[in-house]
TrEMBL record:
Organism: Cardinalis cardinalis
CC per GO annotation: cytoplasm; nucleoplasm
Family: Belongs to the transcription factor STAT family.
TM region(s), chain numbering: none
Gene name of the record: Stat4
Protein name: Signal transducer and activator of transcription
Alphabetical UniProt keywords: Acetylation, Activator, ADP-ribosylation, Coiled coil, Cytoplasm, DNA-binding, Isopeptide bond, Methylation, Nucleus, Phosphoprotein, SH2 domain, Transcription, Transcription regulation, Ubl conjugation
PROSITE patterns attached to this UniProt entry: SH2 (PS50001)
UniProt-recorded Gene Ontology molecular function terms: DNA binding; DNA-binding transcription factor activity, RNA polymerase II-specific
Pfam families recorded: SH2, STAT_alpha, STAT_bind, STAT_int, STAT_linker
Span of domain SH2: 570-672
GO biological process, one term: cell surface receptor signaling pathway via JAK-STAT
SMART domains on file: STAT_int
C-alpha cells in the first residue's frame, strides 16, 4: 500500500493536519494523481543536489503533462484547469531554484510519515502535544489580528496628519493675507473678526497636533507591547519548533506568518517615522507657546528608532540549519572539508533591501566554545540577501559551498579527537550583516544552533546523539558548554524522539509496545514514562549490560539496517522488531505451529532474526531462532527471499520450510509475496537449461536442527542449490544421501 493510500485512511483529525501543509507551493492534486511516482523518487537527495533537483523537476512536469493529456480525453474541465495552473506554477516558480520544490516535497513526505506514525500511537507524545497546544494557536491568531489593527491605525493617523497639514496651510494663507494689509485696514471690524477666526483656527491646530501626537503614541505603545510579549513568544516558539523538527519532530511552519507580521510592523513604524518627519516640517512653518510637537516629537522618534532596531535584530533568523547534503536527515553534524548548506532569512521583507544586505559567515566567532579545536570556513562565506532565489519571494540567502577546515594547534598538531570528546564539543556558526535604510544603520547578528564537528564519518552516530540530546533538553540556542554537565532527559520525551528517528529516517515510527521494550532496555526495568529521568551517559556512553556497545550505537545500527536492506518490510509494518526473547515466547506459545515473528538482535549490532513456534510429538511447544542476519548476508540475498526459501533439516533429514504464518496469523506469502525477487514457480527446471548450458542456481538458506537442540546450527549456510535441482535430487536420492551431501 502506498504511503498516500495510508494517509487517506486516517481519521479526520489527522487528515486535517495533512491539509495544513499542502498549499499552492505543492498542490494536493499533484500529490494525489502522482502518488506512486512521487514516493519512488529520492527528494531528500535532490534537496541538496541542484542537478538532480532539476532532473526531478523536469520529470515532474512530464508526469503532469501526461496527466493533462489523460484528463483532456476525459473532458474533466475542472481538473484540466487545475493541472494547467500547476504546470505554470512548476515552470515559473521553481525553474530558477529546483531544489526548493525538492525541499517542499521531501518535507511533505516526511510529515506524512510522522503523522502516520502518530496515528499508530495510542496517545500523542508530550513534546508534540506541547507544540500543537490550543494556547499557541490562539496566540498566533491574536498576533495576526493585532498587527492588522496596528497597520490600520497607522494608516488612519496618516489621514489625520494630512488633515492637519491642510488645516495649517489654510491658516498660513489667511494669516499671511492679513499680514499683507495696510495698517488702516487691520483696524476694521471685518479684520478683527478674521483675527478671532484665526485664533479659533490656531486653537484647533493645537488640539489636532496634540491629537495626532497622542494617536502616534498609542500606535507606538501597541507595537512595543506586541513586540515585547506575543511576537517575542511567537518567535521563540518557532525557534523551539525548528529545534524539534531538526531531530525528526513535526515539520515546523509559521515562518511566513511571522514574516508577514514583522514586515507589517516595520512598515507601520516607518510610516509613523514619516508622520513624525511631517510634523517636524509643520513645526518649522508654525510654532507657538505650548506647542506639543517640540516637546513630544523627539521622544516619540527615539522610541520608534529603538523599536526598529529591535525588530530588525529579531528578524534575522537561520531558516534552515547547517546540514551536509550527503546526510540531509542529520543536520548540525558537519565533517571537516565537506560542504554544507545553511539558509538565513530577514523576516522584514522590503523591496528596498533586495541585494542590499551582504551576510558574512564565520565559525566560533566569540571562541567561547569549550573545545580546544579551532576551525575556519572555506568557500564563499559572503553573499547578498535577495528575493529571487526563494520560491516564496522571501528576503533570504543560502550558503551552499561552505567547508569547515580544522586549524592546527600551536603545538603543530590537531586537537584531541577522542571518540566522545569530539562528538560532545559544540561549535557555533555565526552570521553578521548591516542594514542601511532611511538614515538608519543597524548591525545584525545571529547564529546557528550548536553544531558538532567530526573528522571521520565513523563519528557520525555519536555526533547525532549529541545533537538529539541537546535539542531535546534545552531551548538555549547557544549553550556551547552544555556537555560539561548534560542534564537528564525525561524518558517519555526521549522515547517520543526515538520514534521520530524511525518515522523520519525509515518511514514508520514505533508503537507503544516497541517503545516499552526500548524503555526496559534503557532502564533495565519497567518504569513510569512520565517520572523517570535518564542520564546522557546511560543513553550514549555506558555499555549495555554484558555488551560491548551502548544503547545508541545498537539503535543506530538497526536504523542503518532498515534503511539499506529491509525498508519495504519495515514500512509495511511486518517487522515487530523490538521485542525481547521472553516476550516473543509469550506471544508465540499459543499460536499455530509455523507461526513466526521478526525481531532485531539484542546481542549483535545491526542484526535481524526470526523465531518460530513448533510442537513436539508429545505436545510440548518449542521455539527456534536463527542466528541474526546482518547487512553482509542481506547484501547477498534479500530478506524476503530468505523467508520464502528458508529450509531446516530436522531429525528425519527432510528439508522443509518451517515458516508458515507471520504473527499473529498472516500467511507468509500474503505478507511478503510482493517483496520476493521472483516467484518459486518462475525458476527454470534443469531440463530448461541455463545461460550457455548452465543450470540456473539460487541461494537457499538451510539450517539443521538436531534432536537435542532447539536452535538451528548455522542459519547462514547459503547453499548454491536451485529449487529445481533440489526437486530432482529428491526424486533420485534418499533423504540420507541428501543429508550427507548437505553436510
Amino acid at each position: 500500500m502506498s504511503q498516500w493510500s495510508q494517509v487517506q485512511q486516517l481519521e479526520i483529525k489527522f487528515l486535517e493536519q495533512v491539509d495544513q501543509f499542502y498549499d499552492d507551493n505543492f498542490p494536493m492534486e499533484i500529490r494525489h494523481l502522482l502518488a506512486q511516482w512521487i514516493e519512488s523518487q529520492d527528494w531528500e537527495a535532490a534537496a541538496n543536489n541542484e542537478a538532480m533537483a532539476m532532473i526531478l523537476l523536469q520529470n515532474l512536469i512530464i508526469q503532469v503533462d501526461e496527466q493533462l493529456d489523460r484528463v483532456s480525453q476525459e473532458k474533466n474541465l475542472l481538473l484540466i484547469h487545475n493541472l494547467k495552473r500547476v504546470r505554470k506554477l512548476l515552470q515559473g516558480k521553481y525553474h530558477g531554484n529546483p531544489m526548493h520544490i525538492a525541499v517542499i516535497i521531501s518535507n511533505c513526505l516526511r510529515e506524512e510519515r510522522r503523522i502516520l506514525a502518530a496515528a499508530s500511537m495510542p496517545v500523542q507524545g508530550p513534546l508534540e502535544k506541547s507544540l500543537q497546544s490550543s494556547v499557541v494557536s490562539e496566540r498566533q491568531r491574536n498576533v495576526e489580528h493585532k498587527v492588522s489593527a496596528i497597520k490600520n491605525s497607522a494608516q488612519m493617523t496618516d489621514q489625520d496628519v494630512k488633515y492637519l497639514e491642510d488645516l495649517q496651510e489654510e491658516f498660513d494663507f489667511r494669516y499671511k493675507t492679513i499680514q499683507s494689509l495696510e495698517q488702516n485696514d487691520k483696524n476694521s471690524a471685518l479684520i478683527k473678526q478674521e483675527m478671532l477666526a484665526l485664533q479659533a483656527m490656531l486653537n484647533t491646530l493645537d488640539y489636532k497636533r496634540k491629537e495626532v501626537l497622542s494617536k502616534i503614541g498609542r500606535v507606538i505603545h501597541e507595537i512595543d507591547v506586541l513586540m515585547s510579549n506575543m511576537l517575542t513568544e511567537e518567535l521563540l516558539d518557532w525557534k523551539r519548533r525548528q529545534q524539534i523538527a531538526c531531530i525528526g519532530g513535526p515539520l515546523h511552519g509559521g515562518l511566513d506568518q511571522l514574516q508577514n507580521c514583522f514586515t507589517l510592523l516595520a512598515e507601520s513604524l516607518f510610516q509613523v517615522r514619516r508622520q513624525l518627519e511631517k510634523l517636524d516640517e509643520l513645526l518649522t512653518r508654525l510654532t507657538y507657546d505650548g506647542d506639543p510637537i517640540p516637546v513630544q516629537r523627539p521622544q516619540l522618534l527615539e522610541k520608534v528608532n529603538f523599536l526598529l532596531y529591535n525588530l530588525f535584530r529579531n528578524s534575522f533568523v537561520v531558516e534552515r540549519q547547517p546540514c551536509m547534503p550527503t546526510h540531509p536527515q542529520r543536520p548540525m553534524v558537519l565533517k571537516t572539508l565537506i560542504q554544507f548548506t545553511v539558509k538565513l532569512r530577514l523576516l522584514i521583507k522590503l523591496p528596498e533591501l533586495n541585494y542590499q544586505i551582504r551576510v558574512k559567515a564565520t565559525i566560533d566567532k566569540n571562541v567561547s566554545t569549550v573545545s580546544n579545536r579551532r576551525f575556519v570556513l572555506c568557500g564563499t562565506h559572503v553573499k547578498a540577501m535577495n528575493m529571487d532565489e526563494s520560491a516564496n519571494g522571501s528576503l533570504s540567502v543560502e550558503f551552499r559551498h561552505l567547508q569547515p577546515k580544522e586549524m592546527k594547534t600551536s603545538a603543530g598538531s590537531k586537537g584531541n579527537e577522542g571518540p566522545h570528546m569530539v562528538t560532545e564539543e559544540l561549535h557555533s556558526i555565526s552570521f553578521e550583516t548591516q542594514v542601511c535604510l532611511y538614515g538608519l544603520t543597524i548591525n545584525l547578528e545571529t547564529s546557528s544552533l550548536p553544531v558538532v564537528m567530526i573528522s571521520n564519518v565513523s563519528q557520525l552516530p555519536n555526533a547525532w546523539a549529541s545533537i538529539i540530546w541537546y535539542n531535546l533538553s534545552t531551548n538555549d540556542p547557544q549553550n556551547l558548554s552544555f556537555f560539561n554537565n548534560p542534564p537528564a532527559a525525561t524518558l517519555s520525551q526521549l522515547l517520543e524522539v526515538l520514534s521520530w528517528q524511525f518515522s523520519s529516517y525509515v518511514g514508520r515510527g514505533l508503537n507503544s509496545e516497541q517503545l516499552n521494550m526500548l524503555a526496559e532496555k534503557l532502564t533495565g526495568q519497567q518504569v513510569s514514562y512520565n517520572d523517570y529521568q535518564l542520564s546522557w551517559a546511560k543513553f550514549c556512553k555506558e555499555h549495555l549490560p554484558g555488551k560491548s556497545f551502548t544503547f545508541w550505537v545498537w539503535l543506530e545500527a538497526i536504523l542503518d539496517l532498515i534503511k539499506k536492506h529491509i525498508l519495504p518490510l519495515w514500512i509495511d509494518g511486518y517487522i515487530m522488531g523490538f521485542v525481547s526473547k521472553e516476550k516473543e515466547r509469550i506471544l508465540l506459545k499459543d499460536k499455530t505451529p509455523g507461526t513466526f515473528l521478526l525481531r532485531f538482535s539484542e546481542s549483535n549490532l545491526g542484526g535481524i532474526t526470526f523465531t518460530w513456534v513448533d510442537q513436539l510429538e508429545n505436545g510440548d511447544v518449542t521455539f527456534h531462532s536463527v542466528e541474526p542476519y546482518n547487512k553482509g548476508r542481506l547484501s547477498a540475498l534479500p530478506f524476503a527471499d530468505i523467508l520464502r526459501d528458508y529450509k531446516v533439516i530436522m531429525a528425519d533429514n527432510v528439508p522443509e520450510n518451517p515458516l508458515k504464518y507471520l504473527y499473529p496469523d498472516i500467511p507468509k506469502d500474503k505478507a511478503f509475496g510482493k517483496h520476493y525477487s521472483c516467484q518459486p514457480n518462475e525458476v527454470s527446471k534443469p531440463s530448461d537449461g541455463g545461460g550457455k548450458g548452465y543450470v540456473p542456481s539460487v541461494f537457499i538458506p538451510v539450517s539443521k536442527i538436531l534432536n537435542d537442540s532447539t536452535e538451528p546450527h548455522s542459519p547462514s549456510d547459503l547453499l548454491p542449490m536451485s529449487p529445481s535441482v533440489y526437486a530432482v535430487l529428491r526424486e533420485h536420492l534418499s533423504p540420507t544421501a541428501i543429508e550427507t551431501a548437505v553436510s
